[in-house]
Structure formats: structure tokens, C-alpha cells
Amino acid sequence: MNSCDVLFVHGIVVTMDDGRRILEDGAVAVSGNRIVAVDETAKLEHWQAARRVDCRGQAIIPGLIDCHNHLFQAAGRGLGDGMALWQWLGEFMLPLAANISPHEALTAVRLGALEALSCGTTTIIDNHYAPADVDTTLAVAAALRDIGLRGVVARGMFGPFTDVARDNGLSPALFQHSTVDEIAAMRACMEQWQDERISIWPAPINVIYNDQELVRQSVALAGEYGVKWHTHCSEAAIDPTIYQQAYGLRPFTWMERNGLLDQHATFAHAIWLDDEEVEIVARRRCGIAHNPMSNEYLASGAMRLGLLNEAGASIGIGADGAAGHSFDMFQIMKQVIYVQRLATLDPVATNAWDAFALATRGGAQIAGVDAGQLAVGKLADVVVVSLARPALAPCFDIIASLVYAGSGRDVSLTMVDGKIVYENGQLATADGEEIMAEARTACRQLVTRLQIPVRGSGGASYPLPENGVNP
User: Is there a contact between 329 and 319 (Cβ–Cβ < 8 Å)?
Assistant: First the structure.
């Protein structure tokens, strides 16, 4: 008789396997950290399981994958409203990042990780850059490991203060280290950290205003350790022009000519690519983390998703920290569709299946994890979603219902690496209420210390309330 550790039964199983199978009364069996069977419930009923999870009235889906986030930015969520990207960075986020303490950053990271797990996210690429000293970077990696996530700490490096950064109004506060020192610290992080679920990658913070040598050496370091690397590029419409004026080439053209692009390169945003850059990204099999909610919030633009897909680029989606406000990947999936349809005025520019694939299979490819599908042999990252809310009834097309009407609030269970880490509103690995309480206190102290204005409707400022909750 077959046996397993956990058997999910009687759910609508969205496999996202190569056949795109949907099992109306399906079951998923897990042993250790791998999926060992996926079939109709009737065919797996006889399996012996240490725990059986009845999923009637629920969907069983692959864990969602967030390909670009800044979890520490949860500390400033809801602030900095009404700014375009460069102003948002220069006047709000980078000053916050330059002054946040390790304790404040870690409380915000844990809060963001709690939110992610509660919303069905099992893997995150966390582009952490504040503070980015070795000890704090390792502490962030440990926090993600201990709470139960899978993913990456992409350590953000600012390096020397470049002319581009200075000329475009960025503060020198974060540009305090030479390229040599940044790479040495990065190497120390990678040498000292060993874990199967959490990796550390080099992450020059933004190709546009990073020192070019820092980018080169980051890529070399990633190759030396056999990992990917991560960065921002071409997020604002002006970015490629700024770069071309400074260096004579558009950013992706420069990276291509310097041999820096292959399947190990992963980019957040990549909105403002010309036709040549689209072809370069696809030919070199680079990964792109599309952040539609952030792009809408900062009015950065709409990524050329259709052309990149047609060219064969590897694409996932991300929440992008405080610029998206919510780490709920269900919200982000629907924005993938709405942004493209509005930008192209084409109702078939993309659809629910495409968006769901970006959040699962596409994300797995970029993060380099053997997940994103409910299929035999894949990592056991499994999410159960309740279909009980009125918004999800009737449910004719499960993918459309989940993407257009679903929410992280509907997640009833999250399994990562074969372990149930979140169930029925409770985190199994830590005290969720304590995480939220610590974050409220620490983040309020940060915002008060930095005198960051809280703005109400119409732009009027008001004092931070005593309880840390906006009126």
C-alpha cells in the first residue's frame, strides 16, 4: 500500500503541469519535501497518510512565487504617496533606507514574510539593501528561513557615488562603499551562509546609477558561486536616456557587449526596452520580474509583456515592496492583465491563464527552484485556497475566479518544502500576533524619528497617531 506524509484530497487541483490539467476532485500526495502523486481523489483514496487534509470547497494550487520584493520596505507602507519614481526614491525611500536600523528592518522583514505566507506565497526574491552589512544580511536570510519561506536574499549594493546618481538628485548616504568593499562584503555573506531553502545572490542595486565595475564584478561573483544575480533596470522612462547620455549606450546593449547577460541575469522592471533590447533579453534568456502594481503606483509605465513573451523571454511577477503596498500575489496577478489591456487597448493582450503561469511556472524559472507546478517529483510547495466567499461563487473557470476575484485572504493553508507553515490564520513557525505588534512599534519609531510626513487626502499632512494606525 502506498503511503505519504500529507495527502490533500477532494479539492480542485490546478496542476500547472505541462498538460495544464485541472482535476475537479483531485488529490496531491506529499512525502518529505516532494510531491509523490497527483491524481483524482478516487485513485489516491487508498493511500495511507500521516495527515489527510480535506479540501472540499477549495482549490489546491502551486505555491505562488514573488520574483522581486523589498520586505524591509513594509516599514514605510502607506507613505510617500503621489510621487514619481525618482522623487519617491530621493525624497522618501532612500532616506528611509539610509536610516533604518537592523532591528527595525528585521521586524519589517518578518512582517512582510508573514503577509506573504498568509497570502499563499512560498518563494520570494527579497532584494534587501537596508542595512546591507554582512550581519544584517545574514539575519534577514535567517529570518526568512526560520519563518518557513523558500527564496533568495538578493543583497543590494550601491557602491561608489556615481555621477549619474549625483546628477539625478540621489543622496550619497547609501553610496558609502567602494566596489572592492561591496564585493568583499558580498563574498563574506555567500561564504558564511549555507541553506537549502534560502540562497544569497549578488544584487547591484540599479544598473542605471551603479558603477559599471560593480556590475561587472557582481556578475563574476555570481558565476564563481554558481548562483544568479539580480538588479533593477529601465524602470523609469528616462532611465535609458540617462544611461545613454552617461555612457553612450543603452543599458542592455552595454551589458550585452560586455558579456554580462545569460540565464543567470534577473532584472526587476525592464519596462523601457527598445526593440533591440527586447531581442537581447530574450536571446540571452534573462529573467524579468514584472511588477505591475508598483509600475501603476509610481506611474512608471507598462512593460512590453506581449513582445517579450513572443520573443521568448523568461518572465515572473513581483510585489516590489512599499511601491506596491500589498504583498498579495492574487492582487498582482490581476494587475498584470489590467495594465496590459489598458496599455494596448486590446482585451486579449493577456488573460488569467497567462497571469497565473507567471506567478507559478514563470516565477520558478527565474528563482531557479524546482517548483511552480503540482507534479510528481516537484518540490512540495502547495497552497489551499477557500472558495467560500461570495466573490468566488459561482466558480465556472477556476483560474479566472482565482485571478480576477481571489485574494490572499482566501488562503487557508500554505505548505513550503513539505511542511505546513500557515493554516487557518495561524503561522506554525512563529507567533504572528507578536510579529505584527513588534513591527507596529518599531516602524512607528522609525517614521517618527525620521519625521516622515503622513499625508491624508488632498495632500494635507497630519501627525502620526499614538497607536500607529492612520485615522
Answer: yes
